[in-house]
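chain below, 125 aa
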Amino acid sequence: MKYLILILIITTSLFSKNVKIDKAVAVGIFDENGNGENIQHLRETKNDYNGLCYSKIVVFGNYQNQKIDVKIGKSIGHKIKSIPIYSKNKTKIGEEISFKHYNITKGYFEVKIENKLFDTKVFVK
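prediction:
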């Protein structure tokens, strides 16, 4: 019986996820021509982004393929690229993720991971 409990504890700890997200922030927004702006410390974008645009977010921590929802108004972003971020000691500390948005009108830029809201401060014109 003791061996069965020990095996059960070992297998559950091996298959459990180590998910810890420290921060997820919106970094930039770009139009289809590549013109854009850094939105880290803004409340409202300077340019209008109607139609097709691209956005970048940075996730610090280990999110292990959890569902990331990035919205601008009612437009849902589609993940197109991910670049890992490394520290000086060459350990992975996060990822920069790019999204493509279709039919942008205007609204708030929202970053959610597993339905937990991380960033929503920027209003996109």
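The chain has one helix and ten strands. The helical segments are 2-15.
thats it, cya
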